[in-house]
Structure formats: C-alpha cells, structure tokens
Specification:
Two copies of one chain form a homodimer. The first copy, chain A, is an alpha/beta fold and 864 residues long. Chains A, B: Mg(2+) binds at residues 735, 759.
Chain lengths: 864, 864
C-alpha cells in the first residue's frame, strides 16, 4: 500500500485512510460528478509523519508522480513557466471525522511570479491573477509560516485606503501587485521567506496540514466532540477551479435539506465572483441559493439535481461546496451536513418515512444528548417587544444574558455563574471555548454557513449571525445595535429561531417537543430495555416528567422542600431547638409540609414508583453562612436572636461538608428527623389509598458506606412501618466508593440500589464540583481528563465501581433493582454504559428524560 | 453435649465454651490447686439464651444437678434451712477473652433469712453473717434488679452515721440487720422484690450475667479491645469461701511477675478480713503482698509457690485471685495478667531467655501498637519540682493536662483538642470512654489492681491511683491535693512511673527505649519481609527515625517546610505575585530554603531512600483564613496590604478543600512550583554527591487520579532531570479511589506507588477527619463502624482498593515498588494487611517505626 492515491483510484479504501473529504471526493469522482482531479495523502502518511517528524520514505516520490498525472489530465504545468494556464492546486486537510473550521486550507498553491503573468495572460484578467497570488501569499504566510493574520489585514486595509477602494474587489491589479510586495516584506521581516518554487510551496503546505492536526484549536474541537487524538488527518491536493473569474463564476454551499429546520429540499448560499474562503470566513454575506431559481434557473436545477443525487448516494443530508467557473459547475467537497438537533430529528424521521433508511438507523442518527435543547426556551412572538436588530437565524432557541465581547470574558463571567451572550464581529476557532459556555451567540458578519453558525448549531447554542446593524467597539467595550448603544455587561436577548435581537431581558416561553420528536421516541420505545425515570421534587416537575415519558420518579430530594421560604424557619427551629417541646413543634410542622408534598407527588405519579430520598445535606446548609454571620458580628450588626444561630452555625461548621455530617449519618444521630420523614410518607400513602388511588412510594437512604448504617436506619424505618401497618420498598443510594465495594453485604438488606453517580464521581476522583473550576477547564484543554467526569460517567473508575456493585449486589440478592439517579442518568453515553452493565433504570432531570429514552434504545440497538 | 459442666469434668473443653475464667478454674482443679468446687454454664448456653430470650431446654435441670453435687461435695445445703453452714455460691461471668470490670459478679448467693441465722450460728459471727447478707442484697439489687447503687450507698452512709461508725466494719450485726431491712424497702419502693428462694436468686443472677453481655459498658470495652460481639459469656457458679471471717482470713490478688515493670517474682496485694470485691472496687486500700513475708511467711511461700506453678503451667505471667479462709488458701481465678507495654516486653524477652517460651512466641506476645508508648515522655526526677502529692504508680508514663472531674467533661474537652487529666475519687466502668481519651488518670482511692490501674495499664494511659491526699468536691468542680486547692481546668502533671503528682505544667523529657525492647526488636529483624520507613519532614525527625530503625524516609511533606515562619512570607509572595519578577524572586527564595532542607534530610539519611512528596495542600492554606479576613473587613480593621490578600483568599476559597485545587492539580496549573521543588532536590543531591556522600532521593507526585496527570507532571520533571543531567526514581501517591482503580495504567509510568491511606480512606468512605467528630464517636459506640477507619485500615473497602492496585500495578510493571505512607503504616493490624497483600514497605511517624518493625515480623510469623 502506498501513501498517496488519486481520487479516481481509491476503490476499496475507506474513510479512515482517506479522511472524510478525500473519501467523498473519491466517491463523487467514481460516480461521475464534476469534481476537479486531485489526489489524497492518507491519514497513515500523517501518522507516520507525526511520529517521525519527517515524511516517510517514498511519500514525496508518490506526490511527484500524482502531480505529473494532474498535469497530464489538465494539460497545465505545475508552477506554470511555460505557455497556457499554470496548474494551481488547493491543499486541504480532511480527517476521518468532519472538523469544520478547525484545520487549515491553502488555495492557489503553485503560483509563482512567472505563473501570475501566465495566469493573467491566459485568462485576460491580471487583477484576478494578482488577487489569486495575494491570497496564496497571505494564506501561506499565515498557515505555513505562522505570521499573524493581523499584519496582512493591516496592509490590505491600507492598500484599500490608498486606492480609495471600499471592498477588496475594488483593488486593481497593480494595487494587488504592490500589496504582494508588501506581504513579502512582512514575511521577511519575521525572518521567514515565501517560496517561489511550487514544490517547496507544496511541501510546506502538506507539512503544515499534517502539523495542524495538533494545533490547540484542533485539540479543543476534538475534545468537545470526543474525537480521539491518534487518528491523524489526510491531505487532499486538488486542481483549482476559480469562482472569482467574473460574474459568470461564483462559489457556494448547498444542503440537500435545511440544516436548521430539517425541511426537505435544496438549501444554501451562493456568492458571485468569489472563492470559497470568502463564504466560509463570513467576510462577505452571500445570497440564498433560492435566488438562483430566478437569476440562473439552469444552474439552480443542476445544483438541486446534484444535491438530490448526493443525498441518495450517501444516504444522509449532504452539505456540499461547489464552485462555478465561467458557468461550469464543479463540486469541491461533500459531507453529511451538520444540523440543529431539531433538524436532525426531522431529517431522520422523514428519511425513514421516505424509505431511504431503516427506522433503527433513524434512531441511531440522532444525538440523544441534544434532545433536551428541543424543549429549549423560545421567545413568544406575540409577547415580544420590538426587536433592536435582526440577523440570520443561525441556531434556534432563545437566550437572555449579559453581553460579553470576547471569549475570555465569556469564560470568566460564566465561571462566576453569570449567563452570558457572546457578541463578536465574527467568530473564529479561537472563540470555541467561549461559544461553548455562552447562552447565545451574536455576530455582525457571516452567513448561515459561517463559522459561528456551523459551530453554534453543532453545540446547540442559540445564535443570530450576520446582524448588519451590529457594530462593536472593542477598545471601549461597547457595541451598537442600530441606533441603540450598549456597554459590555448589559443584558440582551436573542431568538436564534427568528433571528431577532432585543435590548434587555425578554420573557422566554418553554419550547414544545414537536411531532417529529414524538414519532422518533415512539419508534424508540420497543427497543429499549432500560426503564427511564425522572428526578423531580415538586408535583409540577413530576407532571412534566410524566408527559415527557418518565415511568416514575427515581429521586425526590426531600431537602428541596425544606428550602421553601415558608418552611425554612421551621427547619431552623428544629436545628436550634433547646427543649423537647420546641423540637416536637418543629417536627410537627415539617411533618405536615412533607406529608402535603408527598401527597402531591404521589398523586401526580399515580400508579408509578416514586423514590423518596431521605434528608441528605448537612444541617448547616439550612442556616445562614458562617462568613455572613461572622461579618455581622464583627461589624456589631448581629440581631438579638442571631448570636444563638451563630453559635450553632459554628458548632455545625465543616471544613469539607461534602464529606460531612449528612445523609444517613445525620439520620442516625437525629433519628427523630428520619422518623418524621418516613411517617409523612406513610401517612400520605395511606390517605391516597383511602381515596382509591395507587401511590407507589419507595424509601431511599443516602450516603451509606456500611451495612450497619443501613441496618440501624432500617430499625427506625421498620418501627414506623409497624406503626402505620404499611411496608414500603426500601433501598440505598450507592454513592460512596465504599458502598460500591461492600455492595454484596448491603444488598441482602434492601430492595434496590440507586447509584448516586454525582457524589460517587466526586469521591472516586477526589474532586468537588463546587471547586473544580480552579483546574477543570485546564484539565479538559490539556486532556488530563478525557471528558468532564461530572457530565459523562467516568467508566474506567466510577464505572468499574458500578460494575463491582452490580455484580456483587445481584449475587447476594438476585432480585435487587438497580438504577442511576445522578446527572449521568440523562447523558447518552452514560446511559449506554448503564445498559451494558445491566441496570434496570436510569433517572434524569425531566427534560433529559428524552435523552435517556432515546439513548436507552440506541444502546439496545448497538448491543443487538 | 450439655449446657453445664463441673470444674472437674471439663477435660477436652476449651476456652471458647468455658470462658477464660471457667477454663482456668477447670485447669486449676484438674491440676490439684486448692479451688472451691463449682461448675460452668457454657458460652453456648449464653448464646442460646440471648437468641431465644429464655433458657434453652434442659439447662436448668443440669444446673440443679450440679448444685446437688456441690451440696454433696461440701456437705452444705443450698439456701441452708437445715443444720450446719448453708451452701453459698458466687456467680461470675467469664467470657473467652478477659474483660475485667466489664461484667457483673454476685457473691454470697443462696443466703436467705434462715441461712443468715444458720451462718451466724455455725461461724459464731453474726456480724459476718449479716454483712454477707447485706452484700448479697445490695449486689443483687444493683445487678439483677437494676436499682441505682446510689440508693444503697446512701442507706449505708446513714447507717454509719447513726451507729457512729467510721468504716463499714464498725457496723454491728444489728446495724446490718436493720440496714438489710432498709435495703429491702428500697427495692420494694422501686416495684421489685429481693427473692428469699435461693433458686430464684440463682436464676435471676444467671440471667443477669447472660444479659450483661450486651450492656453498654461491655459493648464499649469490646469495641476498644476489638472483641467480636457474637461470642457470649460463660457463667461460673462456685462455692463461696470467706476472706472476711476474721484476721486469719483475707483476700488478695497475686501476679507471677510485676505487671508494671515486668520484673520476675511474686507481686500483689492482700487485704485482711475482706472479700475480693473490696480489693477490686478499690474501696479499701490493700497492703503489698511483700508484707506477708514477715507477718505470715508460710502463707507468703505458699502463694509464691502457687504463682510459680501457675505461670509454669499456663506459660505466661499470671494474675490470680485468692482468698484465705481461716488460714486456708483458696484460688478463685487465674488469668494471663494485664501488663504495661513495658512489662509486656520485659516478660516476653525474659520468658524466652528462661526457655519458657520460644523467641517467636515472645515476638507474638507483645502488642506492637503499644511500643510507641515505651518512648512516652517521662518527668526527669532531677529537674522535677516538689510533688503536690504522691500515690501508687499504676500505669507508667508522664502526662500534663487540664484536670477534669468526670468522663463526660474529659470527652468534651478532649474533643476540642485540649489535653486532659481525668481526676476521680475512683473509676468505674462508666468512666471507660473518658479514660481512653485522657492523657493521664488520677484517683483518690484504689490499689495497683483497682479498676483504674488495670484499665489504664491496658490502655497505656499514665495513671496514679490511691492518692490519699486527693479529695474532690464534685458540686463545686474543685479538688484538693494536700494543702493546695485546684479548680477543674487547672493544669496538673503526673508521673505514672513514680506515682508523683504536680501542680501546673512540669517539663517532660523523652522516654528511652530500654534494653528489653532493643533485644525484642533484634529478634524480630530476621523474620520481617516488609521494609520499614518513617514519615519525617526535618533532619531531627529523620535522625530520630534512623535511630529507631527506619530504613529510609517514606514521606517528606514539603509543605511543612513552607509553613516555617521565616518562609511563609515568601510563599505568600509567590501566591500574590502580580509580576513575573515578583514571582521569580519568591521562587528563588523558596528554592534556597528547600535546597537547604533537602540537604539536611538527605545527609541525615545518607545511603537510605528519602521519598519527597511534591507540594500537596491547596494554596489558600498558606494564607490567613477567609473568615478572619472577612471579620476584619467588616470591622473596618483590614490593614492596607490585606485587601489584596482578601481578594486572593476569596478567589482561592474552596467549599471542600480536601477535594480541591491541590497536589498534582496545583502542580500542573502552576508548573513553576513543581520545577522549583524538583530543581531544589536535584541541586541538593548533586552538592552532596560532590561531597562524597550517598544521597538517595525519590520524587513523589501527590493526588493523581489519571495517568495523564502523571505524564504531564513527568514532562516537567524530566526537563529538570535533563537540566541537571541527573535522574531520580519517580513515583505517585495512590490516594484517590480512581488512582487505585486505574493503577494498571499508571504503573508503567512510575517506579513506585506509595499508598496515601489517609486520603484514600477519607475518599473511599466519604468522611473528613476534620469533621467526623459530629458522628464518629456515636458510630463507634453503636458499631456502625467496627473500627475507626482513620486509625486502622478498613480492609473491606480501602484494603480492597489496595489489593486491586497492587495486583494490576504489578501486572503492568513487575518491578514496581509498593509502600504505605498513611498513618496506617504504623498501626499493627494494618501492617499485617500490608504484609499479606505483598507491599514492599510501610512508612510511619518516627515512634511508630517500632510498631511497624514488630508488626511486620509478627505478620511474617503469622503467615508462616
């Protein structure tokens, strides 16, 4: 096997070797689509290069042979220098998994001073020839020679000022020639040199693409999208065609279905007299393809036909790049199109209904983790105020937040818990981490396929792009939307579904799930084996969860009821009680509250299990913070009753509350609280039964680490059972590593285990979600952690503990029921894990029930 | 098999069934020692009773038959009622493991109103007869009927006042008869009845002994001494002999060697005209046995002969109780004597040298956990001030602390970190938990074998007992030592080796190890396979550890150097640095400090490994506490420079610092600190090598949980190695559960693992040593935790993680070195575990090196 293959000779080679782009070019070539000829350096060549730091033996000979074949096929000479058009090529990366915007591209490669002349003569367009050269020198300078883009932009801007030109296209050939000279001096001032030899250009470009695999932006992207680091990228070298030869030329991007809504039919954008980079970079705003229907119906039909054929062949919605050179259509790339979660659902469902794919495949095509975003808030058009500005609806959903003007500020403010909206002239890959953390994204430039739009859709972050009325002043940290001025930090709202931007906070309404989602989840039902429950603390949450398909409540956090403003005085009274009478009164009040809460929850979930976790947090969480009281005391502002509170807060203070006096520890030391909670649940259950309803409560003991804790808590629970003559299933959280490791001796005592993977993760790794901000972002950047373990279950360690507990728990008690009630219960890959290790159910926050339902079906399909 | 056996018919039955006391009585009976006849109800009978809540079938028939045999053997009738002496019995518990003072005893059982008359007539001592009855009614009332002792004591005191009697023995027969009547009325007032039927008495007493197995004191004792709960106790019923028939009678306790020093030869105490309870309870202070040498040389020789024969038979130092009834010696009990750690060592060594036991057995006889107490502080007699009072040197070692007058106060003050000395009139089993936590114990009454003395020696707590000059006023919370008055909370000092008590704080000097210990540890050396290192942070500690036999340092906590007052300003400067220059200056200063520290440590341990742990704690530990600064700010007292410190402290503040930004996390985010520490160690090493020394440093990375952390830290470490052209072994702490669970992928990267069992324990169980005080004492009382896992390695969970890491670490890297550097490395049972799982070494605080050395040998012997 060689290192390099022509597009036309790749029969039998796969995406892993050719990369996604190379594979698609090869397929299109073999199917007879109009693809400019070219060849692919394989990912294996990349890996060999990265390992050795040098090209592997034979690689360059193969490249030379392929370039010779290109010369033969096009009748042009690489670098020119003879008569006729010189052979120019594009050099693009193409990894096996699409990484838009992450890797580097160089166009017009092969141009030399001689070639420019030849190009100018052969096309009769010296301006075009010098512009092509200018682009090459600039891109090569940036990408291969590592010169800051800003320097080139400054020179370009100055050239425009000097020439009195408003746009790039207004620069003349001689303006451009002069500019190239300035570019060369800029490069030389940095101690580098732009090579005049086309082969040196090619070698530099290939090296740069190979090496760009490891640039920080690429690494970040891979981390966010969970792409392994050891794959490498292929390099595609393709004969150039030109969209910037005049008004009968142009470049565009097409989709076989609408990537925002999923609607079937050609969708896309076209920019006359331009090269592809102009579209992708969002520098000029293109026109919708739809306009071609009138202006150039023949071209439109041709593109629509290509779109349909590509989709039929690749069996998925396609996102393709094309160039029209003097009226002739060329395809430069095709790939499965990125899409909004909403579009993903609609496309999967409709393609299955069209018979293009099986229903099972439709299920597997939707990223289950994105489903909650379908329920994302929207701005009710009826009640919305007048928009301050309007742009392109690049990524659906509405957002409200503080405007921040760069990614770093976004990260820092969001890290302090503020909702932010990232406002930028346009986005670049450097902005990725800020985009990821923002509630919404707003840009002044760029179209529906600009970087901002593509990335925001992929991340499921609402975005409005190409807002012409938006102008930023980065020095003064301010911006304008039309007539109105804003400072960084001002609150704005945006609607990525309509493209509208609003000043201030606009009321959001909840999203609806839609018929396609409903259909998809219906198809999913028969496949899944895992049960899906919801974590819910209120009857409203419970009802919502039930609507979304939850088959029960896997976690009721009873302390959430305690925090209610009406109740917390009684919780405090209980903690501060000095006499039995005071304690009894507080307990009686809390009993009444809890009983009513349980009634509501059990009623909402009538006929379905409701797992009630007994009090979990340390008591000091119900009291004012120590620091606050100490400050008051030092300032002499302590209210009369607060001295006692301060004393109690000091007594209950903990250095590490996460590892403290809470859960079963607290319940065993203060059994009257345990007794009150169990009695309230039993009393609520009995009352509902008397009303002819079917309440199905289960009791759950938190934070155990020894079977003795369970036995001793059970002793109290059983007394209450006897008193009410009513028995309920009782289980334990498994959320300390110890509980997992001694699960075999806990299992005989209980009816079920519910894995509290939040705490289990924190204890297993020794991290605190509250504090990890000091290092976790860096850890994820540097891949010290492959994933954020608080989001996605850490299979190697936490998962291993789960497996031990499942195996040994079931061995000790074969009918033990097993579930997850940590946040991971609503994360798709973690649900797959839950399926693999044989749990009975997962429980997630209400919206994430959708994720769990689909992921459970996907897991079953993947295993079958 | 039956439930009951006569002492003379127990051939082939063991201690498990007969209990320690029953077994010893049976042995002595069969060997022809003068033992009053009797029989034993087995532990199996106890277990059966406790399970059913009733006597098992056949038990009582067997008891009746045995009592009949006793009647036949003694020629007396149980309960009397005919002519001659009535048969009286003692009823005593006797578990398989000695539990002194924990279980209940009843003497003179079988006495009835008729019997008293008969006894008075037959002995001619009506006073004795009524006193025996009085004791029975009182003991039975307390133990079986559950009447508070205080009521009886009050009546007794009143009787003495009325009779003008100073001591109990001054009461006449008729005083005592009247007193018995009052006792009966006291019992009836509580709704109970003292039975006149001897069989009912016996049944009640047996039940009470069985049930006393589960009384809280017994449970506490078992927890402290790690005795399982499911063993049960035997009951011994034995014909009474009387030490209180006059001056030719008496009772005493003998030891075959001195239990405080280990010196060979008869040792003990004797109290004329008394029953055994008078000695044990410490109510009257007995005379040294030595005095009998002159006053009754025949008796002395007889007792000495018994002591020697008992020791020869049982092959251990014996503690035996005897009674002399009208000149005739009876043995009531023998057992291996409790002894001070010092005596344990001397006795084991000398018995081996005498050929009585093998050296291996000598090694196994010493509780390795007690060895550090041999190095316990003493009061230098040369420099001591005049003693405020003097008593019996009941348990060696010196102590300084705040005097507290009851066990509860002792627990509460000690819980707040105050050193306390428990001062009591005498101690009872209710005081156990207070005694355990005290630095020293001081009592007004009692001899060398009183409860206070026995328990203090067992626990290794220094104690002075029987201080006649001590009087307490519990109401006013004060006490007097001779002429001087003290309030509770005043500081006093005591020397349990000399029996002296001092006002205020007396300077303590360090203990010396002694020749016997030295010999024992020499014998241990060839047996142990585990290496023993010390945790030490200073050259002084290192030298001390080396003297004590440490073969290296397993843990240098570099942050302990940072806390030095001279250095902490530079640590703060580093944290607060705003410019690179400030940071560089701070790092340079710290480099110089660390280099000097490392020089000292490596010099002290020349030729031996020194494992240096890189910076572990979070940075905020080096800054003033948040609460303190916030208080200052609120009070408007913030110094000019402190606003900046407060801002930084707020920024670094963590909710759960244990799970926070520390260890490798900090080192990766602030690699300049890592670099500085490694450079300091390398520089120190090079300098010492140039001096011709043999420094053997090892580097250790703390708090890792992924192999990536290790790789990334190693990248920085290797740069420093290259810079110094010097490579050191590098290892990781394994102290998060995750690190243990992925040990197989960490092992290939490092030379060694050191298990940080302190953190590993806290994370595995989800407890914080700083906060566990809220529930841990109750957890240990209720056996929710079988042991304190921060003291003794929790084998079920933490141990299991260790086993996983050992197995998978070694599989990935067979030459991986493995050790423990948590506190458990100096705890005997944990050292056994370390041996069993195949670690290479344990590392403990310097004094605990002794424990580790002996325990390692014991573990090897136990395994062979």
């Amino acid at each position: 096997m060689g290192w390099v293959y022509a597009f036309s000779e790749t029969e039998g080679l796969g995406k892993e070797l050719l990369g996604g782009k190379g594979f698609a070019l090869a397929e299109m070539t073999r199917l007879g689509f109009p693809v400019p000829p070219g060849f692919t350096l394989t990912t294996e060549a990349c890996r060999a290069y990265l390992e050795r730091g040098a090209f592997p033996e034979g690689l360059w000979d193969e490249v030379r042979a392929q370039v010779e074949r290109l010369e033969a096929a096009t009748g042009k000479r690489f670098g020119g220098g003879g008569e006729g058009l010189p052979l120019l090529v594009s050099v693009r990366s193409g990894a096996p998994v699409s990484m838009p915007g992450m890797m580097d591209t160089i166009l017009n490669l092969g141009l030399t001073p001689d070639g420019v002349q030849a190009l100018a003569e052969a096309t009769g367009q010296p301006r075009f020839a010098w512009d092509s050269y200018r682009r090459l020198v600039q891109m090569y300078g940036e990408v291969v020679l590592g010169i800051e883009a800003e320097g080139f932009e400054r020179l370009l801007d100055r050239a425009k000022v000097l020439a009195g030109a408003e746009r790039d296209v207004d620069l003349s050939a001689s303006d451009l020639e002069r500019l190239v000279g300035e570019y060369r001096r800029l490069i030389e001032a940095a101690g580098r040199r732009f090579p005049d030899d086309p082969w040196q250009q090619l070698e530099g470009a290939v090296r740069a693409v190979f090496e760009s695999w490891n640039n920080p932006r690429a690494r970040t992207y891979r981390r966010l999208y969970e792409i392994p680091d050891d794959v490498g990228t292929a390099v595609n070298v393709q004969a150039m065609v030109f969209g910037n030869l005049g008004d009968d030329s142009g470049t565009g991007v097409g989709f076989s279905r609408n990537p925002a809504t999923g609607e079937k039919g050609l969708y896309g954008e076209y920019l006359k007299n331009a090269q592809g980079e102009d579209v992708v970079a969002g520098v000029r705003t293109p026109q919708p393809l739809e306009r071609l229907r009138e202006s150039d119906p023949g071209l439109y039909d041709e593109i629509a036909d290509v779109a349909a054929r590509l989709e039929a062949h690749f069996r998925d919605m396609q996102d393709f790049e094309f160039t029209v050179e003097r009226g002739r259509l060329y395809l430069l790339q095709t790939r499965a199109g990125k899409r909004t979660p909403e579009a993903a659902v609609r496309i999967a469902v409709e393609m299955a209904e069209e018979g293009a794919i099986a229903r099972e495949e439709a299920l597997l095509r939707v990223d289950a983790n994105t489903l909650p975003s379908l329920l994302r808030a929207r701005i009710d058009p009826e009640r919305a105020p007048e928009a301050a500005a309007e742009g392109l609806p690049a990524s659906p959903g509405a957002a409200v937040g503080h405007a921040v003007l760069d990614a770093e500020t976004a990260e820092s403010w969001a890290g302090r818990g503020l909702p932010v909206i990232l406002v930028r002239p346009e986005t670049t890959p450097e902005d990725i981490s800020g985009m990821y953390i923002a509630r919404g994204i707003l840009t002044a430039r760029g179209g529906m396929t600009s970087h901002a739009a593509v990335v925001a859709r992929g991340m499921g972050v609402p975005a409005v792009v190409g807002v012409a009325a938006l102008s930023l002043n980065l020095e003064e940290r301010s911006f304008r939307l039309g007539e109105r001025s804003f400072k960084e930090g001002d609150v704005i709202s945006l609607d990525g579904t309509t493209g509208k931007v609003f000043a201030g906070e606009v009321a959001l309404s909840e999203g609806g799930s839609g018929e396609y989602l409903h259909r998809l989840l219906e198809w999913a039902e028969p496949h899944r084996r895992l049960g899906v429950r919801a974590n819910a603390d209120t009857p409203a949450d419970a009802r919502r969860a039930r609507e979304l398909g939850a088959e029960g409540i896997g976690l009721v956090r009873t302390e959430h009821m305690f925090f209610d403003p009406e109740r917390i005085p009684w919780v405090r009274a209980l903690i501060l009680a000095e006499t039995e009478k005071e304690e009894r009164e507080a307990l009686e009040r809390l009993f009444a509250f809890q009983r009513a809460d349980f009634m509501g929850l059990l009623e909402a979930m009538d006929g379905l299990p409701v797992t009630v976790r007994l009090l979990d947090p340390p008591l000091h969480e119900f009291l004012p913070p120590l620091v606050e009281l100490e400050r008051k005391e030092a300032a002499g502002e302590l209210a009369p009753g607060e001295a006692k509170v301060l004393a109690q807060v000091r007594q209950l203070h903990e250095v590490n509350p996460m590892l403290g006096f809470r859960g079963v520890r607290l319940l065993l030391v203060r059994p009257e609280i345990l007794r009150m909670q169990v009695a309230a649940l039993l009393s609520a259950t009995r009352a509902l039964r008397e009303q002819g309803r079917d309440p199905r409560p289960e009791l759950m003991i938190p934070l155990v680490s020894t079977p003795e804790e369970v036995e001793q808590a059970l002793a109290v629970v059983r007394e209450a059972f006897a008193e009410f003559d009513l028995e309920l299933p009782v289980g334990t959280m498994i959320e300390t590593p110890r509980a997992a490791l001694v699960a075999g001796s806990i299992a005989p005592l209980v009816d079920f285990f519910s894995f509290g993977t939040n705490d289990l993760t924190q204890l297993t790794i020794g991290i605190s979600r509250d504090d990890a901000g000091h290092f976790l972002p860096r850890y994820l950047d540097a891949r010290t952690f492959a994933h954020d373990p608080t989001e996605r279950l850490d299979e190697a360690a936490v998962g291993r503990l789960l497996e031990i507990a499942v195996r040994e728990g079931r061995a000790a008690r074969p009918d033990l029921k097993l579930g997850i009630c940590g946040e991971h219960g609503g994360e798709a890959r973690s649900v797959h894990f839950a399926h693999r290790v044989g749990l009975d159910y997962v429980s997630a926050s209400p919206f994430r029930v959708l994720t769990a339902r689909l992921a459970a079906a996907q897991a079953a399909l993947a295993a079958s």
